[in-house]
Structure formats: structure tokens, C-alpha cells
Design brief:
The complex is a heterodimer of chains A (about 325) and B (about 425). By secondary structure, chain A is an all-alpha fold. Chain A has 13 helices and 2 strands; from the N terminus they run ααααββααααααααα. Chain A has one domain: Orthogonal Bundle (ABC transporter involved in vitamin B12 uptake, BtuC). Helix content of chain B is about 75%, strand content about 5%. The chains are: A mainly alpha (about 325), B mainly alpha (about 425).
Chain lengths: ~325, ~425
């Protein structure tokens, strides 16, 4: 019971962090048709920027400075990069962001080195929020939940209740018609791209000291965010949200489950040997293959429901 | 096949056969070892890049799991070789790559059935997922993949069609030459089959192809399977050469490498990926020894290609064809010469900045000494930084200026060539 509740909370925290990344990616992707491969790299930049500004100014201003820097970088990428290659089609845009992964990854290593940075939770948030069955729940995780829930509400209000949100939604489905009505669609694209990068940067700020700040985090977060986007379905923020929470739960829960497929088979009298490949697959405990599960789920959902959970369209 | 292309193919084969003997190591009375290993690597990479281009160039599919089939072919070959060594599999070494190709094909059928339901961006995402899936599985399951240590074998299984032992590198090299030649030839012929042509049609306008009664999904699927087959052959050669296959052979960096080779070489011409594979392998074994910032140069080169020359190096060369035939190439000499100095300045400034920066954070910690352009440099003084920044800024501004001039001349030359044609 205690394991269940603690994992549930941790899964929620991780899922919300995933959602901060995936929401930006989904918005960019649904709207511009551009899958930003560098999204994980922007997340990493956010963490490093936050570390630097925490060192010089303080954590609370880093909460604003780092995402703004990431947003500015996103806008620059869109204006000077993606627009130039746009006329060569979506594949060229994909390739462009793919190249950015190398450049950002190496630049970060050049600027900060290969070792993890001592980016820590601020002292004002470094206390146990409450104690659950003897296990302490850090206040910082509560703070992460607060930030991500605030972002969720903010995005929802922006998209549903403001004029800019209406135009973004319109440009999402009918870019040609929106442009014909006199709206500056390229500007909307830039705003969305910068906004997505802003969110990734924000996720970096609060995720950098939750996980760690090192050059490997871009490669660690990148694929799982793609999994979330595919699993949730394209063009659907709600699907993205559900998928983020599910993935957060799956990843957190798989760590604590020590059972294997063989344990399920044992009651029906099948006991696999563990000295061949099939036996190994059947007897490996879930905890050991935790990293595999999200990918497996993605492949499965693509097989049975290519649109994803709540996807509105095929690509 | 026309006579002209037959001559080109045979010439290339002859070059590949003779090449190692041009680097003869007189001390040991055999061709130099590092040349053989580099050429062997090139052969595998040529197969990888060409098979990747069956997707990217021919079918317009941006795949991110190509190394999966390459690596799977490699892993399978290790197990086939082990079985053959134990006397359980009566297959000669020369045919092992074929078995590897079939393993790649089998896996490609499974994953292709899922991935090719989609195209364009969704396809890229699914293949990314598949690539990650297999790479993660390779670290977790020990019976087939051997975990982090990989699986190893002994290639001298004493079963050969030609009575060869494959004890020396040169014998393995000729095996690679043979298979690279056969695989490349088959892939080239495939571009002229109805399937190859339909792949092009589905790339250019899949709705129209569908309208004509072809199912683009089937075309994508078949193309994907064939690409997996040839990648598997490459992986088989990899296993035979190195006698060990680890996680690196299925992991994402190799898939990215396949993409870089095909794209930088040029994905619209058949020889493009070959050129890309040769170039990247050369750069990799040259530059990566000298600089640990190798990836940033590749990244910048790649982005520059995507932005300014989407048809790759072969595309740039091909664009000069009509100008050359019209006898106007001489008009381009001066603009090209004017690009040289600012171009060198920009590149030198950029390399200087990158090396200085990365030395401060990575190199100095490793206790190395910085040597730039042949002279030792102290990164803690201001002079090298100032020189690098000035070179970079002045070079970039000047290069932009000259590039505009070049574009004007190019437009007028190309325009007059077109007007005559």
C-alpha cells in the first residue's frame, strides 16, 4: 500500500514533467508539421541555463530567465533556420532539427564539460512536505507539481480563452484559411515554436535538479517524450496529457515491480527454463526492463491504433 | 546495363582490388594494416549508406532505425559463426553475409509491417521508437545480445568455398569488396525495377501513385524490407571483420551516421551515399583522432548542407554539368577563387573557437596540450581567442559578401545556359 501511494505520487511528478516537454512538442508538431528532434536538447539547455543563473542570481529568477533564453533560442531557430528550409519540405525540416541535436549537445559539452553540474534544489524548498508511512515526500516535488499544474492551466486558458489562442487553434487545422483572413501565420508559427521551447526550458529548470544536469539528459529525455507524443496522438493536448501521466506511472511503477511474465504463467503450470532466449524474456523481472516498457507500449499502440490515444488525424 | 555503366562498375571494382597494395608496408611485406581496416570499414559503410538511401533518397522515408537491421545482421552472424565453428552449421564463411541479410530481412518484415503504415514524420517517430526499443533490449537480454559486453566469435571456421582461412586482414578485405560490389550492384539494379520506380513515385506524390492503382504502403513496405536485407549484409561483414558485435552496432549513433553519409554525399544520385560513406569514414578516422569536437563539425556541415545544398555533394557537382557542357565553366573560376580566402578564414576561425572552448572545459581537464594548425597554443592567453574571433567575424561577413557576388554570377551563367538549351 505504501509503495503504491508513493509510486503514485512520484509517477504523477514525472508524468507532469513529461507533459511540460511533450505539450510543447505536440503543439509545434500539430501546427507546423515539424517534429522538433532538438526538443530534448532545449530541455537540457534549460537545465544548464538554470544552473548558471542560479549560481549568479538565484533560483527564483532562473525560473524565468532560463525559459526565456530557451524561447529566444527557439525563435531564432524558427526564423533563421526552419523558415529557410521550409520550402524543401518536412523531411528537410526534420533533418535540420536533427542536426541541431549534435550541435547543441556538443556545444553544451564544450561550455560546461562532460561532468554533471552541481545544480541543486534551492534551500528554501529543501524540506520534507509531509511524511507518508515513514517516507518523506520532498517539498520540491510538490513545487514541481504546482509549476506543471500552473502551466497546464495557463496553456488551457491561453488556447481556449484568448484571441491569440483562437488564432493558434485555427492555424493548427487550417493554416491557409487563417492566412487568407489576414493573420500572420508565419508569426504564429514563430510564437508557437518559441513557446514550445519556453516550456521545454521551464521543464529543464525544474527537471534539472530533480534528475541531474549532465550532457546525457537530452538523449535520455528525447525518446521518451516522442513516445508520449505518439502514444497520446497527434493534434490532441488532452491525449498528450493522458499519455504523459500513463508513461510517468509506467516508468515509476516498473521500478518497484519484481515479478516477471513467468510468475503469471506459473499458476497455469508453465515453468519456463531461464537458460535460453525465450526463457530469459519470460523470467526477466519487470524492474530490470523498465526502460523498455514505454517503447513497447508505443509500438503496440501504433500497431492497434496508429492515431494514438486521442489523435484526431493520421499524419 | 549499358556498356558505359559496365565499364564504370568494373573500374571501381578494379580500384578497390588494387587500392590496398598502393599502401605497401615494406617492413612486414604486406599492405599496411590501418589502410586495410579503414577500407574494410568503408566497404561496410558503403553498404549501410546505400541501403539507407533506398529509404531516404528513393522512397523519401526518413528512417532512424537503420542500424537496427545492420546490428541484428551482425549479432546473427556471430551466432551463425559460433554454430559453424561448433560444426552445427555447414555454411562457408563467404555465404555468412547472405544469412545475415536474411536475418535483417526477417526483422525488417516484422518492424516494417508496423512502421510503413505511416509516412513522413510519423514514420520517422516510429522508427526512432523501434531503434530505441532494440537498442535498449540489446543491453538487457544476454542470451542473444550479450548485454554490454556484446557477443564475440572466431571467424576462422575452416569452411570456405575457396579454401581461405580468413586469418589475415587482406582476405577479409577481399570478402568485403566482393560483397560490397554484389550488394551495390543489386541495389543499383533495384532502382531500375518497377518497384524502385514506384518508390520514387510514392516519394514525389503518393496520392497520385495511389490514384494510379498502386498501394504506397506496400511499396514502402517492400522497399523497407529490401533496405533491411542489405543493411543486414553490411552487419554480417561487420561481424566477420571485427569478430565482436556490441551495443554500438544497433545504437542510434550508427543510424544517425547512415543518415549523415547518405545526405552529405547526396541522396538523389545513386553514387551519392558511396561518396558520403567514403568521405565520412575518412573524416572520422582522421578528424576524430585530432579533435574531440568531431561531432560539432559534422553537425554544422550537416545543417549547412540541409540549408544550402539539399542535394548533397553530388548535387553540387551535378549542378555544374549543364554549365560545363555549355563551355561556361571558366566564368565561374573567378567567383570560386574569391570564395577561397574568406572561406578559409571562416573555417579557421570557427575551428579555432571550437577547439579553444572545448580545450578549456574538456581537454585541459584531461591533461592534454592544445595544438592548433601545427603549433602549440596557450589557451589561457588572449591572443589566440582574439585571432579566432576576428577570423570568424571578418571571414563570415566577407564570405556573405562574396557569396552574394557568386550567386549573381551563378544566376546569370545558369540563366544563359538555360536560355540556350
Amino acid at each position: 500500500m505504501e509503495v503504491l501511494l508513493v509510486s503514485l505520487l512520484n509517477g504523477l511528478v514525472y508524468g507532469m514533467l513529461l507533459f511540460m516537454l511533450a505539450s510543447g512538442l505536440t503543439l509545434i508538431f500539430s501546427m507546423m508539421g515539424v517534429l522538433n528532434f532538438a526538443h530534448g536538447s532545449i530541455y537540457m539547455l534549460g537545465a544548464y541555463f538554470a544552473y548558471e543563473s542560479t549560481r549568479w542570481i538565484g533560483f527564483w529568477s532562473a525560473l524565468l530567465i532560463a525559459p526565456l533564453l530557451c524561447g529566444a533560442i527557439g525563435a531564432a531557430i524558427e526564423i533563421w533556420g526552419l523558415r529557410r528550409v521550409h520550402h524543401n519540405g518536412h523531411i528537410a525540416e526534420l533533418l535540420f532539427t536533427f542536426g541541431l541535436v549534435f550541435i547543441i549537445g556538443r556545444s553544451v559539452q564544450m561550455a560546461w564539460g562532460m561532468l554533471p553540474m552541481p545544480y541543486r534544489v534551492p534551500a528554501s524548498l529543501d524540506f520534507p512536505l509531509f511524511t507518508l508511512y515513514g517516507l518523506q515526500f520532498p517539498a520540491y516535488r510538490g513545487f514541481m507539481l504546482l509549476i506543471s499544474a500552473g502551466m497546464l492551466g495557463g496553456i488551457w486558458l491561453l488556447l481556449k480563452r484568448t484571441r491569440v489562442g483562437m488564432i493558434i487553434q485555427a492555424a493548427l487545422t487550417h493554416p491557409g484559411m487563417t492566412a487568407a483572413l489576414g493573420h500572420n501565420v508565419p508569426l504564429v508559427f514563430t510564437i508557437v515554436f518559441a513557446g514550445g521551447c519556453f516550456l521545454a526550458g521551464l521543464a529543464g529548470v525544474i527537471g534539472g535538479n530533480y534528475q541531474s544536469t549532465e550532457p546525457g539528459i537530452a538523449d535520455a529525455m528525447g525518446p521518451i517524450v516522442f513516445v508520449v507524443v505518439v502514444f497520446g496522438g497527434l493534434g490532441s493536448l488532452a491525449g498528450c496529457f493522458i499519455a504523459s501521466i500513463i508513461m510517468g506511472m509506467v516508468v515509476t511503477f516498473s521500478v518497484v515491480i519484481d515479478a516477471s511474465i513467468a510468475d503469471l504463467l506459473r499458476p497455469i503450470g508453465i515453468v519456463p527454463r531461464s537458460d535460453d532466449l525465450l526463457g530469459e524474456i519470460l523470467t526477466v523481472p519487470v524492474a530490470r526492463i523498465g526502460a523498455l516498457l514505454p517503447l513497447l507500449m508505443m509500438v503496440l499502440i501504433l500497431f492497434f491504433r496508429p492515431r494514438g490515444l486521442l489523435g484526431t488525424r493520421d499524419t | 546495363m549499358t556498356r558505359r555503366s559496365a565499364i564504370i562498375w568494373l573500374t571501381l571494382l578494379a580500384v578497390a582490388i588494387v587500392l590496398p597494395w598502393l599502401f605497401y608496408d615494406f617492413a612486414h611485406h604486406r599492405p599496411a594494416g590501418f589502410v586495410i581496416s579503414m577500407l574494410s570499414q568503408m566497404g561496410m559503410m558503403i553498404i549501410l549508406a546505400l541501403s539507407y538511401n533506398m529509404l531516404l533518397g528513393q522512397a523519401g522515408l526518413f528512417s532512424l532505425c537503420h542500424a537496427t537491421f545492420f546490428g541484428f545482421g551482425g549479432y546473427s552472424t556471430i551466432h551463425f559463426l559460433n554454430a559453424a565453428g561448433a560444426g552445427e552449421l555447414p555454411v562457408p564463411t563467404e555465404l555468412m553475409p547472405l544469412l545475415a541479410g536474411l536475418s535483417g530481412l526477417g526483422l525488417a518484415i516484422v518492424f516494417g509491417a508496423m512502421a510503413t503504415k505511416q509516412r513522413a514524420t510519423a514514420f520517422a517517430m516510429i522508427t526512432l521508437g523501434i531503434g530505441e526499443l532494440v537498442a535498449t533490449a540489446a543491453l538487457m537480454f544476454h542470451h542473444f545480445f550479450g548485454g554490454e559486453g556484446g557477443v564475440s566469435t572466431d571467424r576462422m571456421i575452416d569452411q570456405s568455398l575457396f579454401g581461405l582461412s580468413y586469418a589475415s586482414g587482406i582476405q577479409v578485405y577481399y570478402l568485403i569488396v566482393g560483397w560490397t560490389f554484389v550488394a551495390a550492384l543489386l541495389m543499383w539494379l533495384q532502382t531500375m525495377t518497377p518497384l524502385g520506380r514506384m518508390a520514387n513515385a510514392c516519394r514525389d506524390n503518393f496520392e497520385r501513385a495511389q490514384f494510379m492503382g498502386y498501394d504506397p504502403r506496400i511499396v514502402r513496405f517492400l522497399q523497407f524490407c529490401l533496405a533491411g536485407f542489405f543493411a543486414g549484409i553490411g552487419g554480417g561483414l561487420y561481424a566477420i571483420t571485427y569478430e565482436i558485435v556490441t551495443f554500438d552496432a544497433v545504437a542510434a549513433p550508427l543510424s544517425a551516421n547512415a543518415l549523415l553519409m547518405a545526405y552529405i554525399g547526396g541522396n538523389m544520385v545513386f553514387v551519392g551515399p558511396v561518396l558520403g560513406a567514403v568521405l565520412i569514414t575518412l573524416l572520422q578516422s582522421g578528424v576524430s583522432l585530432m579533435s574531440n569536437s568531431w561531432l560539432i563539425y559534422v553537425g554544422v556541415l550537416f545543417i549547412a548542407m540541409v540549408t544550402f545544398a539539399p542535394a548533397g555533394i553530388t548535387g553540387i557537382i551535378m549542378a555544374h554539368g549543364p554549365v560545363w557542357r555549355a563551355g561556361r565553366l571558366s566564368r565561374l573560376i573567378l567567383p570560386y577563387l574569391r570564395l577561397v580566402v574568406p572561406g578559409i578564414a571562416t573555417v579557421a576561425g570557427f575551428v579555432g573557437m571550437v577547439e579553444l572552448l572545448s580545450f578549456l572545459t574538456i581537454g585541459a581537464a584531461a591533461g592534454k596540450h592544445l595544438v592548433l594548425f601545427g603549433s602549440p597554443i596557450d589557451a589561457n592567453t588572449a591572443a589566440p581567442w582574439a585571432i579566432a574571433i576576428v577570423l570568424l567575424v571578418v571571414g563570415t561577413v566577407w564570405l556573405r559578401f562574396e557569396a552574394r557576388y557568386f550567386a549573381r554570377v551563378w544566376e546569370s551563367v545558369a540563366g544563359s545556359v538555360e536560355a540556350r538549351a
